[in-house]
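Input sequence (83 aa), recorded before submission:
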Amino acid sequence: MTAVHIVRDGEHYRIDLRRADGSMSVVRGGAVPGGLRKPGDVLVHLLAEGVPVEEAEHCVGEIAPGFNATAELARRPANQRRR
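Predicted structure, token format:
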């Protein structure tokens, strides 16, 4: 990933991902199973896309100041930590 942009889109978040090869994908939260309603949902989706945890935490921290990825992952069941 070279760029990640997260915006609120109604009840969900939308994630714009730009990859190193120049391709771009848009993930609409309502289209993701379970949705992307909370910052923690966005974190898990970014991790599933291969974004390193430190970078994912930084990106989510921009929409949720003070967000703690370690705490969020610890409170989720193991099968929800990475999709």
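Checked by second reader. Residues 53-63 form the longest helix (11 residues).
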